[in-house]
Task: inverse folding
């Protein structure tokens, strides 16, 4: 029994070190993604165009509300990945397609989970299609622990994003989002799948920016 427990602990430590997940449980990614959306839009509305400001300000707001979780969060890697600084030039699909092979090579995303994200992103899947694909993927495959955790993380963001953008209490434009708004944060969280707070912020930023051009 001691060997089993030790082995489990060692596996968890390995995953945390290898994939960098911290501070947020995988099934909580969506909650903090929505909190970032809520805090940012309450203060700045839905039409901010400066990408660097969107990333940096959302981190500051989350550091105020959740200091223990976001105190060490840095948006530098997100901004580097996004490349552009004007929301009108932002293209989450281009960002994903330009970087996915690097993600796989550097073990940032398990290949099979990446292939699932890739299929959903490049087929312009609707929310319902994405949910069906993720559900069927889980049923049809024997997942490793990191694959299971990664799937939990990105699906959490997808479901939470749909709840946020379709809530009349939080939707300032009073318009339903197009599918791209929801899939953008699914992909955005996937880009930093095992980084906890950074994944939540990246998902938020992708969703917030894409929503401006998705109606």
Result:
């Amino acid at each position: 029994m001691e060997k089993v427990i030790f082995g489990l602990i060692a596996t968890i430590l390995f995953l945390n070190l290898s994939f960098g997940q911290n501070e947020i449980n995988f099934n909580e990614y969506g909650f903090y993604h929505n909190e970032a959306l809520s805090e940012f839009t309450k203060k700045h509305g839905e039409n901010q165009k400066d990408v660097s400001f969107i990333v940096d300000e959302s981190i500051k707001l989350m550091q105020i509300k959740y200091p223990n979780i976001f105190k060490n969060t840095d948006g530098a890697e997100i901004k580097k990945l996004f490349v552009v600084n004007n929301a009108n030039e932002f293209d989450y699909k281009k960002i994903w397609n330009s970087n996915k092979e690097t993600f796989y090579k550097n073990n940032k995303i398990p290949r099979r989970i990446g292939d699932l994200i890739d299929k959903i992103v490049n087929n312009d899947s609707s929310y319902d299609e994405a949910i069906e694909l993720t559900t069927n993927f889980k049923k049809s495959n024997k997942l490793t622990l990191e694959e299971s955790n990664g799937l939990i993380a990105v699906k959490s963001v997808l479901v939470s994003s749909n709840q946020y953008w379709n809530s009349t209490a939080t939707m300032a434009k009073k318009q339903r989002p197009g599918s791209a708004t929801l899939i953008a944060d699914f992909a955005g969280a996937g880009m930093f799948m095992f980084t906890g707070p950074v994944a939540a912020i990246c998902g938020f930023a992708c969703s917030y920016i894409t929503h401006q051009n998705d109606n």
User: Anything to note?
Assistant: The two ends are 56 Å apart (CA to CA). Residues 145-165 form the longest helix (21 residues). Residues 92 and 100 are 12 Å apart (CA to CA). The chain is about 70% helix and 0% strand.
